[in-house]
Amino acid sequence: MKISKYIKSVCISVFACALLTTSTAYYSKVSAQTQAVKQPVQTTNAQTQALSVAPLSIVNSPKVYLNKNIVMKAKFDKFSTLGLDYKPAYKSSEDYISFLIKRDDTSFNIPLSEMKLFLKRDKAEKFIDLKTNDEIEIKGKVFSDALGDAWVEVNELTITKKAPEEAKK
Q: Is the pTM of this model over 0.85?
């Protein structure tokens, strides 16, 4: 009988420790996400207000930024056709080109495909020389959160730093 009570108390202790550890880890994760969402800083322009925000914050909470002007810094990955002509968040492939930026939460070379960035073709032609890893500043507006992704119409694109040339082998 004593062994049964001992095993029961050990099991309850282990369960309580596991619950405490899991809830602490969950709280830390939620707190970090909440802080990431609260980080945007409003900058005033003569014409509009824009939120200076990290790309991952937008991807994590696209509804928060819906119909808001944003400014973000990122590394260019490549031009693409991702998301063009999709009815719920329509941007015509005749008028727009989309592009991808790199994820900044990893050391691997992974595009942030959860964010759809659209630039008018006439503006995109000015950036034909953009290369992977060029640092850019994007000003735009989150116009949709279709599929749970952030869909951004880019109004202004600025190259802030060119990527170093890679040595040919």
A: no
Q: Same domain, yes or no, for 32 and 55?
A: no
The torsion region of residue 147 among left (phi > 0), alpha (psi -120 to 50) and beta comes to left
Q: Do 19 and 80 fall within a single domain?
A: no
Number of domains the chain contains: 2
Which amino acid would we find at residue 3? Answer: I
Phi/psi region, residue 7 (left: phi>0; alpha: psi -120 to 50; beta: rest), is alpha
| Per-residue exposure over 87-97, b if at least 16 CB sit within 10 Å of its own CB, e if not | eebebeeeebb
Could you tell me what percentage of the chain is helix, strand and coil, using 3-state DSSP and rounding each to the nearest 5?
35, 35, 30
| Domain around 19 | 1-38
pLDDT tens digits for range 7-50 = 767 656 665 555 455 544 444 444 444 444 444 444 444 446 89
Cα 97 from Cα 112, distance rounded (Å): 16
